Amino acid sequence: MNNLMKKKNNQESSSPSSDSCLSKYKKVYDLSLENPEAFWAERAETLVSWARKWDEVLQGDFNRREVSWFSGGRLNVSSNCLDRHLEKGCRNQAALIWQGENDDEVKVYTYQMLLTETCRFANVLKDKGIKKGDCVSIYLPMIPELVIAMLACARIGAVHSVIFCGFSSTALKNRIKDCGSKVFVTADTVARGGRIIPLKPNADGPLDECQSIRNCIVVRRSEKEISMVPGRDSWWHEEMAREGIGRYCEPVEMDAGDTLFMLYTSGSTGKPKGVLHSCGGYLTYVLHTCRTVFHFSENDIHWCTADIGWITGHSYSVYGPLGAGATILIYEGLPLYPEPDRYWRIVEKFGVTVLYTAPAAIRALMHFGAGLAGRYDLSSLRFLGSVGEPINPGEWNWYFKEIGHSKLPVIDTWWQTETGGIMLAPLVHPELCGPGGCSRPLPGIDAAVFTESGRETVPGESGRLVIRKPWPGMLKAVLGDGGRVQKMYFSSYPGVYDTGDSARRSGENVFQITGRLDDVIIISGHRLGTAEIESVLTAHRSVAEAAVVGIADSLKGQKIYAFVTVGKNVEQTPGLLGELRQYVQETIGPIATHSTIQYVSALPKTRSGKIMRRLLRKIASNDFHHFGDISTLADPSVITDLIEGKKRSS
Ligand code: WT7
């Protein structure tokens, strides 16, 4: 046991300094909940530049679910991320450092340059007829144009919808059709592990089907020939050249409650949902978290390794650090390419100060690159963060010892696409916190753990993690709602936001997250809904029904396990299983690789026709006992068939 862990065991009553840190936190925290409006008003005033101050901090509450923040307030998020730093004299400071997959490919944008490029692309979008409120879908790899396109949308009040490049055809089509975007921004290819992989061709089919798209703007990333549709498709560099340099684009003043962006995420049922975030509330909250958790300063080189196609990248590669005036680092390639020392090479090369990564990356680096970190000078690092899934003690200790040299504590942060920013983190003496420990709600966040019947749990008892009061970073809405916000987040307990995660809370308001309670799978830190995969499988001509669950995987955290029944006269051949695996990977994207598929003669259903997933989860994980109450199962004999099939396929 290291010293840090030893101290952890009696941390709450340890040294006077830890007491004072704890009491300081408690004081701020208690005040924030006693008078949330005063607390958030102070945060918004201090952290955000407003064109017009708000009339009311908070309108509505969770009981009515109509919540809006800072109404009457007006601002522009891109000018908060760019112009205001120039006004403070930071024009020559690096805003964005880009490391391409090849080591010698580096680009640096100062704040001035990033503003110039943002204005140019904003003007391109305006020329294409994009106005405030229009939606722009962005399907780009980790290249500077991705950040520029997002900021350009924010500048003119267009709503961006970034789609992760690990998604392809069907997943992409669903995400464009749903929001009716008018412009699509992509790249010809992506660099992946030394290969050049076509990207735009993934979008060609979906674009032909999505009538709303009038223009597709393509970044040239390689020399590869791709097909362009005349009149619809054009090259980014040609559009930018036409704009010239120096035509300033006036930021559009937005209402605090206007939408800044939408981002698709998976729930337990149905199609992925487009989560909408507001301009004023989101920016205030993200900047609050940057102050409280990362303590950004202008000298920081902040590297959040998450792809910008996910919320982590939106909040902590783009809006948070740029809003705070720090320097962001964007890396195009894979953690293990060309060698598993790549991350440490980058940290040393640029003097990264803040590293925010995911347990999935840590697992891969531990597994393939043990000992390599020691060859690099990592002394610039002052902060090690983790996000996306629970970090286990092995990963935590490796990160702490090998990368933090037993000096930098690992800050495990919990949050969700819907929360906009970090909600729980070890805020009090993180150096005393070990793996899984010390997560406290940020000031302003009224977190609790409830039993299924809605009673607050006693210390140590597991239950559902809930949030009892609105906070400015919370999702504004879900696109085309149809009652989904109510169903997804507020149906478990009246007037309380249900996170869908299970947790335990100690008497000292320290939280430990134990996992998802719904049908969401987290693969390498990426959230996928089982329903989306099931609808892909059932669209295959040979499949009748499908049920998907997540099973543990030592590298990816979780992977897909699917049970399928085939149609009449379809033979259950090994060849078909391979075809289905391939089909899932092609239609969802590379994120959905290495799935396991098992034939079954029937799925276990309750008498009311619901698939009993908990049973399937157990069988997929080789747990053939402890099925719990199966009295509602319509035909209990299916269990034997499922178990035998599982044994055969293992
Ligand atoms: C779900 C949200 C938060 C940005 C990245 C994922 C899981 C997230 C942790 C953590 C345990 C975590 C939860 C959550 N999760 N961070 N530190 N410890 N679990 O955002 O795609 O919306 O997924 O990720 O289950 O609900 P997301």
From TrEMBL:
One GO process term, biological-process aspect: acetyl-CoA biosynthetic process from acetate
A Pfam family that the UniProt record links to this protein: AMP-binding_C
Chain residue ranges for the region called Disordered: 1-21
Key words, A-Z: Acetylation, ATP-binding, Ligase, Nucleotide-binding
Every AMP-dependent synthetase/ligase domain range: 87-471
PROSITE patterns: AMP_BINDING (PS00455)
Positions of the Acetyl-coenzyme A synthetase N-terminal domain: 25-81
Domain spans labelled AMP-binding enzyme C-terminal: 532-610
EC number(s) reported in the record: 6.2.1.1
Keyword Ligase: yes
Biased composition (Low complexity): 11-21
Molecular function terms from GO: acetate-CoA ligase activity; AMP binding; ATP binding
Keyword Protein biosynthesis found: no
Class in the EC hierarchy, top level: ligase
Sequence similarity: Belongs to the ATP-dependent AMP-binding enzyme family.
Protein name (database record): Acetate--CoA ligase
Gene name for this UniProt entry: acsA
